[in-house]
Fold this protein.
Amino acid sequence: MEVVYEIKFSKRKTLNITVERDRRIIVRAPDNLSLEKIEEIVQSKKQWLKEKINHTQKYPVVTKPKEFTSGETLLYLGRNYQLSVTDELIDGIEFNQRFKISRNNQEEANKLFKKWYMHQALAKIEPLAKMYATNLGVKFNEFKTSEMKYRWGSCTPNNNIIFNWRIIKAPMYVLEYLVAHELVHLIEGNHTPRFWNILSIQVPNYERAKNWLKKNGHVLEIDF
């Protein structure tokens, strides 16, 4: 198998290889690491990369987008809630055990729901980030939710943490796993036994969360 990969240099101290959910191989390397050394390391991981690339559960399937009509269901925090399209004049999205949107805004539903979900993501995830940072004794510089392609979260070399807004559709225990996961990277850059040991102390049921993502991650990929 010929290994084709993209290199992203930064001020990080260690090299990290990830296989994105679109099967791209991304190598994040220290600025001073030679191309020859990077190639040597990548080639040594050839069998592991082959297994990752061929892991069918990891990659999204084509899912029919929502039509935003009454009776449609939308996923939020691991549960499906029905949508009601009403003649009432509603500013944006209302939610109280069901979603409500004004018929006048139905054509802009995708835009309005994305705005609502991004707001909820900030509100739910940031307190978790502060809690786990305190528990771990680490500090992050900036927190935000964003449009991230094929990633659930990221910890940058500048200690900024970024999360894909779509994870707000997952159960709370999955959010806890994803947030703790990125913050543990402030202590241990790679997925070493030490990394998983630290994570297991913070999130004892992290394997359950990983399995949920393997099984349902493709559902989060679509906007709604």
Summary: Residues 109-221 form a domain with the Zincin-like fold (CATH 3.30.2010.10). The chain has two domains: 5-58, 109-221. The chain has a mean pLDDT of 87. The radius of gyration is 20 Å.
